[in-house]
Structure formats: C-alpha cells, structure tokens
Design brief:
This protein is α/β, with parallel strands linked by helices. The chain has helices at residues 2-18, 114-117, 127-132, 173-186, 208-213, 215-221, 236-241, 268-283, 304-314, 340-354, and strands spanning 33-35, 39-45, 51-56, 61-66, 72-78, 83-91, 96-112, 136-143, 160-163, 190-196, 252-256, 289-292, 321-324, 368-375, 378-384, 390-391, 399-402, 408-410, 412-416, 419-423, 432-435, 445-446, 456-457. Helix 4 (173-186) crosses helix 10 (340-354). The chain starts with a helix and ends with a strand. It holds the Pfam family SASA.
Length: 459
C-alpha cells in the first residue's frame, strides 16, 4: 500500500512539473508602459527549475530563464529610449504568452486618498469637455483594485488600458491631468498606476518595519478613529496595493493625502517621511516623490488642517520631493475641490522642472517660509520663491505672532524690500510667527505667477 501511495505522489509531482505554465503578475499586460532607458524587471512564476525564453522586440533579443525551486523567476532587461509599440513573448514548454502594444516611456505611481482617486465621473470642472477630449493613445492607465492583507502580497488586481473617452472618466483625474501636461512637453508615452483609497490615513500605506523601528508612531496612530470607508489598520493597504508593485520599475510617485491624518497632525512629517523613505528602499530607487498640500477645510478642529499643511511643508526637507500648494483651489465646505486640472498641472510643472530639467525659467512653487528674524517688537520674514511677492487684497491677512507665554495674537503685516514685516500692539517681545494656521484659513499672499504662500510656523 505504501509503495502504491509513493508511486501515486511521484507521478502526481511529475505531472505537475510537466504541466507547469508561465504565469505573469497582472501588472504585465497588453498596452502597458515600461520605464524608459532602465534595467526593468520581468518576473512571475512557472514550475520549479522550469526553463523558458523571453523575446523583446525593441532589441530583437531572446534571453533564457530558469526558475528557482520556489517556482519564481525574475530577470532584468534593458529598455531603450521612449517609443513603441513593442512585443514581449514568453515561450515555455506548456504555454506561450504574448504581450502586445507595449510602450516604453515614463511610469508614475499615483497614490493617496479620495482626492487622488477622484475621477471625472465623480464630478470635476468642465467634465463633459474633458471627457470628450481624453483620447491619448500613448497615455496608459492601470487602476489597482482595493484590497488589504496582513502580509505583503506579490500580485495586484488590475489591467492596463489605453486612455480614451471610455477609460479616462473612471481614472484619477489629477493623475490624468499630470500626464497630459508632461506628455505635451516631452512627447513620450506615459504610464499611470493609480493605487489609492479614499479616507485612508498614511499609516495604512506604510510598511510594518517602520512601526517596528518607531514605536512612537504606533502610539500616534492610536489617535485615528475608525471610519466607514476604509480600514485604519496600519500597513494592510501597503501589503496589498504597494508591496506587489515594488519589483515594477517606476519613474516617480505622485501623492495626494493628509486629510485623514488631522487627528494625529503633529506626527505627520515623521510618518510621511518614513513612508517615503521606506518606499524608496523597497524599490531600491530614490525616485522623485511629489505631493499635494491639503487644502483649507472644516476638518473638525480649529488648527489640525493648518498643522498638517505645515508638516507637509516641512517634509520638503527630504531630498527629491516637491509640493503643490492648493490653498487657492478649495472651498472650506467641500473636501473634494473640483478643479483637478490645476492640481495636476502644478504637479506636472514641478516634475518637468525638477526631474526632467524642463521649464527652467518657470516658477513652480508659491512662497515658502525660509527664515524669521526678530527685530525689536517686529518679526521680519524671508521667503523663497518670493519674486513679485504680493497680496490680492488691500491688507495681508492671517499672520499671527506669539509672546513669551506662547499666546498668539493677530499681527499686522506689510511688505518691505521683498519681505513681510509683522507686529502686534499686544506683543512687545515676539517669539514666533505663523501664517494661515487655522484649518479653514485661505491666505492672500502670492508671488508674481499667482501661486499661494504655504502655511507655516517658525521654529
């Protein structure tokens, strides 16, 4: 009997090996975009120790592949300058997979919460016009289906689609407008991967290793209350919707999130910085990471929104980051501004200038706090990106200064020699200054290109 069972399992094992087929993760499909001029990974599964070949048409080359005893395989192939369409053929003993209409260009991962997820179908400005004119054959779209997991996964659910009047309305509007601008300047294919989830906090997008290294972030996370739209369980969305993509070569990340971290606003710079750093480590790539500063809104508390905005400003200390200010693209009654065009455009302009060395003569930031000097009963504030500093009203509003006790008072502000000078009759010896600090504060300080100054508080 034992001999029969042994023979049975041996035969079953042999049949399994013979019938093993090449399998690809869903991020590889027809119409996809691969990162240009890079060593990109092609990977997947087959039988243990399976041998097969991969043909890439852009260089008319064939490489041989052999899986490990874990049934996984991963090879790197060099991609050329932007172009296409190309074909990739995976040729095995039991099956053959042909990927067609593959483009080589720039790939951007787009993540965050509902303002990133927000589509034309969810209502945007000039909705009908934008949809009718959304035929861009060399912009490709991949939407990651919402999933959670307790441990990092190796596949996501989704497929690549060509940008058209049928596909664009269901895709991230901010990401689409970003791609449209970048493509208009560079004339290359753009691939967008939308992995976002409305109402999600930063902690769910951050790997568990960060919390193991920083237990204070676990304590901070406890301040976030559950909601009806998404889990708040840390790392679970990262495990299912980011980790499976980390072998897929990308050019950079766009991020639109922060509204759901107003409950633990004081720690946002730390969790955000650690999240960005961990993603870069997972991809082994210090790619550009560009994000949107949250807009003024009635977040529930008087100052939480302002604190997050300042924490986002401070995150610019991390290398190769950029922030699009949106205090002028908002309504404090609606957390979802419908003007997604300007948000995408501002992100694109940052990418074009900082990453692609384009638009070098164009200002892409609003004024950013640089330094504060106390002179008697006044504070003199220096900004960067301050050319043509101005207000759109008679008075510059929303500046406050504090006294020795840490009490804050409304300050009068005036422009002098390209700097802002603030003072208050109630404060004889000022210690600090802040601007647009309330959650609903919409500032009125701009530079010459009309970009708004960021919320800030001096050290």
């Amino acid at each position: 009997m034992k001999l029969r069972l042994s023979l049975f399992f041996l035969c079953l094992f042999a049949v399994t090996i013979v019938k093993a087929e090449i399998t690809l993760p869903n991020i590889f499909s027809n119409e996809m975009v691969l990162q240009r001029e890079s060593d990109v990974s092609l990977y997947g599964w087959a039988g243990p120790s399976e041998e097969f070949s991969i043909y890439t048409s852009w260089n008319d080359a064939t490489v041989q592949v052999k899986t490990g005893n874990d049934a996984k395989w991963n090879i790197q192939v060099a991609t050329p300058k932007a172009g296409g369409p190309y074909t990739i053929r995976f040729i095995g003993k039991e099956n053959e997979i042909v990927l067609s209409d593959v483009l080589i260009g720039e790939v951007w991962l787009c993540s965050g919460q509902s303002n990133m997820e927000w589509s034309a179908n969810s209502k945007i400005d000039n909705k009908d016009y934008e949809i009718e004119n959304a035929n861009y054959p060399t912009i490709r779209l991949f939407t990651v289906e919402k999933r959670t997991a307790d441990y990092p996964l190796d596949n996501v659910i989704g497929t690549w689609e060509t940008c058209s009047t049928k596909t664009m309305p269901n895709f991230s509007a901010v990401a689409y407008f970003f791609a449209r601008k970048v493509q208009s300047e560079l004339n290359i294919p753009i691939g967008l991967i939308d992995s976002s989830w409305g109402a999600s906090c930063a902690e769910v997008w951050t790997p568990e290793s960060v919390f193991e290294a920083h237990p204070e972030l676990v304590t901070s996370h406890e301040l976030i209350q559950p909601n009806q739209w998404v889990t708040i369980e840390k790392s679970t969305i990262y495990n299912a919707m980011i980790a499976p993509l980390t072998n897929f070569k990308i050019g950079g990340v766009l991020w639109y999130q922060g509204e759901s971290n107003t409950a633990n606003a004081e720690s946002y710079q730390q969790i955000f910085t650690e999240m960005i750093t961990s993603w870069r480590a997972d991809w082994n790539n210090d790619f550009p990471f560009y994000y949107v500063q949250i807009a003024p809104f009635k977040y529930g508390g008087e100052f939480e929104g302002g604190i997050v905005r300042d924490q986002q400003r401070r995150t610019l200390a991390l290398k190769n980051t950029g922030m699009a200010m949106t205090s002028d693209i908002c309504t404090v009654e609606d957390i979802h501004p419908q003007n997604k065009q300007d948000v995408g455009l501002r992100l694109a302009n940052i990418a074009l200038k900082q990453h692609y060395n384009n638009l070098q003569d164009q200002e892409v930031y609003g004024p950013l706090f640089e330094a504060a000097e106390i002179i008697g009963n006044q504070i003199q504030i220096k900004f960067s990106h301050d050319k043509g500093l101005k207000s759109d009203r008679k008075k510059i509003e929303l500046f406050e200064i504090s006294n020795e006790k840490g009490e804050w008072f409304t300050a009068k502000a005036k422009l002098k020699n390209g700097m802002v000078i603030v003072s208050s009759k109630e404060v004889k010896s000022p210690k600090a200054v802040r601007y647009a600090w309330k959650s609903t504060d919409i500032g009125n300080l701009y530079n010459e290109v009309g970009l708004p100054a960021s919320t800030f508080k001096s050290e």
